[in-house]
């Protein structure tokens, strides 16, 4: 019997139809439940791909120290992948990340280094680059690594196409590293160029874990604006309210970026009819419970 190992069960996540949140105009709203991955997020896909492909090319060898800047989910996924494949993982992240995220990374054996809340991910990336320049470890660099979007081209895109029987008309995704939307866009557009790719960024002043509006000098090099048809600005309150709606109306406990994805999908639904709208539920909400975002209403 050839039993699967943990990395064999990354991907092939469920795609479910929302029942109570109404998309109107005869639209169908489908949620891709990426929290069902082993480490709990969509980032399991690129994490396993980046380590696996780098090892296959001989760029890294088990026992090496790897350094990565992360806001949370990629770090958890990389820590899991490093534990599976025998690497030491050093993660640099803003101190504002939830305790659940930090504890999950530490549980997998990763070493954590904090950037300031004010400096955020930009400071975390600068710290990681400085450490790599000093020879303290090897980079994966999810922001520039082509294996990030390639993972979604090879897995997420084909899954969406197959699970909808080729009926998907719109794909909605938060944009952080932009790996998900880049890879899925490439695949789906090859199947049907009319499929609309909708990317989400935070509106000015919003702080939504997993969704970024990068300054030009920090824009991920894997990003290609021509692969995104529509970009929507999502408000923080809007994302948080729709995150709670997912849990209370659909039984889907997810994070804030997933609430933003639902909000974006509903905006799309207001403008179209007879459409099949797929949105990414990036992770599980249990890693945000300490933030108070799900606190009982009083």
Core attributes:
alpha/beta; cysteine synthase activity; transferase; 298 residues; cysteine biosynthesis; Rossmann fold; six-stranded mixed β-sheet; four-stranded parallel β-sheet
Task: Find the CATH topology of the largest domain.
Answer: Rossmann fold
- The structural class is alpha/beta
Low-confidence stretches: none
Mean pLDDT: 94
- Helix-strand pattern, N to C? EEHEHEHEHEHEHEEHHE
**DSSP helix fraction:** 25-40%
- Rg over CA atoms, rounded to whole Å, is 18 Å
Reported for the largest beta sheet, the result is:
6 strands, mixed
What's this, in brief?
Pathway: Amino-acid biosynthesis; L-cysteine biosynthesis; L-cysteine from L-serine: step 2/2. The chain is α/β, with parallel strands linked by helices and 298 residues long.
Structure notes:
The protein is an alpha/beta fold and 298 residues long. It has two domains: 15-41 and 149-288, Rossmann fold (3-Layer(aba) Sandwich); 43-139, Rossmann fold (3-Layer(aba) Sandwich). The protein is 37% helix and 17% strand. The chain has eight helices and ten strands. The chain has helices spanning 44-56, 73-85, 99-107, 120-133, 147-163, 179-191, 236-250, 256-271; strands at 15-17, 28-33, 65-69, 88-94, 111-115, 138-139, 170-174, 196-202, 230-234, 276-281. The strands form two sheets. It has a six-stranded mixed β-sheet, sandwiched between helices. Strands 5-4-3-6 form a four-stranded parallel β-sheet, sandwiched between helices. Helix 1 (44-56) packs across helix 2 (73-85), helix 1 (44-56) crosses helix 5 and helix 5 (147-163) packs across helix 6 (179-191). The longest helix has 17 residues, at 147-163. The termini are far apart.
């Amino acid at each position: 019997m050839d039993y699967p190992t943990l990395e064999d069960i990354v991907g092939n996540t469920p795609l479910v139809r929302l029942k109570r949140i109404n998309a109107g105009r005869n639209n169908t709203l489908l949620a891709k439940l990426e929290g069902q991955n082993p480490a709990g997020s969509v980032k399991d896909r690129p994490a396993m791909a980046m380590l696996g492909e780098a090892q296959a090319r001989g760029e890294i060898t088990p026992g090496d120290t790897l350094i990565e800047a992360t806001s949370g989910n990629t770090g958890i996924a990389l820590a899991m992948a490093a534990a599976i494949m025998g690497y030491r993982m050093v993660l640099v992240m803003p101190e504002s990340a939830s305790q659940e995220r930090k504890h999950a990374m530490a549980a997998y054996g990763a070493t954590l280094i904090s950037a300031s809340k004010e400096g955020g991910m930009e400071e975390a990336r600068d710290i990681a680059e400085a450490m790599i320049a000093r020879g303290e470890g090897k980079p994966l660099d999810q922001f520039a690594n082509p294996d990030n979007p390639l993972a979604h081209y090879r897995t997420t895109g084909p899954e969406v196409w197959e699970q909808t029987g080729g009926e998907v008309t719109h794909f909605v995704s938060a944009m952080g590293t932009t790996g998900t939307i880049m890879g899925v866009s490439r695949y789906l557009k090859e199947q049907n160029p009319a499929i609309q790719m909708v990317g989400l960024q935070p509106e000015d002043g919003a702080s939504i874990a997993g969704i970024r509006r990068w300054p030009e000098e920090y824009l991920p090099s894997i990003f290609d604006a021509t692969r995104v048809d529509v970009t929507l600005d999502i408000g923080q309150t809007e994302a948080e309210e729709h995150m709670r709606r997912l849990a209370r109306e659909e039984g889907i406990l997810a994070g804030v970026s997933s609430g933003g994805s639902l909000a974006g999908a509903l905006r799309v639904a207001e403008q179209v009819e007879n459409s099949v709208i797929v949105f990414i539920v990036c992770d599980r909400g249990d890693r945000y419970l300490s933030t108070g975002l799900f606190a009982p209403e009083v």
